[in-house]
């Protein structure tokens, strides 16, 4: 499968702690995107990182990309209860015309 | 401006009936995508429309599934002779140009339950 695979499948932490989620893929990519989904509904785009980029920040979010290891990580700092959601990585593979989503990481922030 | 909208929010139907799901993309977005998400799973690509080009139907699971996009805007996903395994959340997304290099903006989804 060309799908990105998130790790862990589920993560539960205390409010205020940092949360790290990982995504691995198998073939060369054009870009990798992270999305958040609340309550099984529509997804919200968080960050897009291109294959020639190594790190991007957006507020409390930090995304890294290691193309040599074919992996990406999403770090959420100082987590809040509102961060409770499922997080998906999605990849655009070179030569492909699809955005392929992984299975997601279910993040729970405990108050 | 308004985001992507989908209707209905929820649909319950009986096995064997046909259903139509509607998606209104963001105005000005030329690309429109349909995905399916089964409970606790990731998104499964169904179909992709880009401007006036022939749609990419490679993700449609069977010939019971079809989709149209009229006037380059509103899209309808039709499932004929529904089966219980069609139960899922159907998500629509749009993007400005659809080069797969861009952000996709998702609607809230239609939750379909086939009894």
Can you offer a commentary on this structure?
The complex is a heterodimer of chains A (111) and B (115). Chain A is an all-beta fold. Chain A has no helices and eleven strands. Chain A has strands at residues 5-7, 10-14, 19-24, 29-37, 43-50, 55-58, 61-66, 71-76, 85-93, 99-101, 105-110. In chain A, strands 2, 4, 5, 9, 10 and 11 form a six-stranded mixed beta sheet that branches. In chain A, strands 1-3-8-7-6 form a five-stranded antiparallel beta sheet, with no helix packed on it. In chain A, a hairpin with a 5-residue loop joins strand 9 and strand 10 (99-101). Chain A is globular and about 45 Å long. Chain A starts with a strand and ends with a strand. With 115 residues, chain B is an all-beta fold. In chain B, strands 2, 4, 5, 8, 9 and 10 form a six-stranded mixed beta sheet that branches. Chain B has a four-stranded antiparallel beta sheet with strand order 1-3-7-6, with no helix packed on it. In chain B, strand 6 (65-69) and strand 7 (75-79) form a beta hairpin. Chain A binds chain B through residues 3, 30-31, 33, 35, 40-45, 48, 88, 90, 92, 96-104, and chain B through 4, 33, 35, 37, 39, 41-43, 45, 48, 56, 59, 89, 91, 93, 100-109, 111.
Which blocks of ≥5 consecutive residues of chain A have pLDDT under 50?
none
Oligomeric form:
heterodimer
Q: How confident overall, as mean pLDDT of chain B?
A: 91
Total DSSP E strands of chain B:
10
- Using the alpha-carbon principal axes, give the shape of chain A: globular
Query: Approximately what portion of the residues of chain A adopt beta-strand conformation?
Result: over 45%
Instruction: Supply the number of helical segments of chain B.
Output: 0
Number of helices of chain A: 0
- Relative strand content of chain B: over 45%
Biggest sheet features of chain B:
6 strands, mixed
Series of secondary-structure elements of chain B, N-terminal to C-terminal = EEEEEEEEEE
Note the main sheet of chain A. 6 strands, mixed
> What share of residues of chain B is helical?
under 10%
Helix content of chain A: under 10%
Described by the principal axes of the CA atoms, the overall outline of chain B is globular
**Rg for CA atoms of chain B:** 13 Å
């Amino acid at each position: 499968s060309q799908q990105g695979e998130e790790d862990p499948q589920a993560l539960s932490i205390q409010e205020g702690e940092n949360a790290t989620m990982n995504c691995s893929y198998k073939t060369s990519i054009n870009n990798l995107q992270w999305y958040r989904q609340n309550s099984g509904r529509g997804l919200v785009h968080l960050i897009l990182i291109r294959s020639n980029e190594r790190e991007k920040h957006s507020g409390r979010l930090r995304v890294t990309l290691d193309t040599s290891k074919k992996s990406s990580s999403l770090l959420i700092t100082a987590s809040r209860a509102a961060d409770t959601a499922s997080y998906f990585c999605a990849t655009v593979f070179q030569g492909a015309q699809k955005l392929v989503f992984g299975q997601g990481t279910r993040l729970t922030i405990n108050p | 401006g308004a985001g992507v909208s989908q209707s209905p929010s929820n649909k319950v139907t009986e096995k064997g009936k046909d259903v139509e799901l509607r998606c209104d993309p963001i105005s000005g977005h030329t690309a429109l995508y349909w995905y399916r998400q089964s409970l606790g799973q990731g998104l499964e690509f169904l179909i992709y429309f880009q401007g006036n080009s022939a749609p990419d139907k490679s993700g449609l699971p069977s010939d019971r599934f079809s989709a149209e996009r009229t006037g380059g805007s509103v899209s309808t996903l039709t499932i004929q002779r529904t089966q219980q395994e069609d139960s899922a959340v159907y998500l629509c997304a749009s993007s400005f140009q659809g080069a797969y290099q861009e952000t996709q903006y998702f609607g809230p989804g239609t939750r379909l339950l086939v009894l």
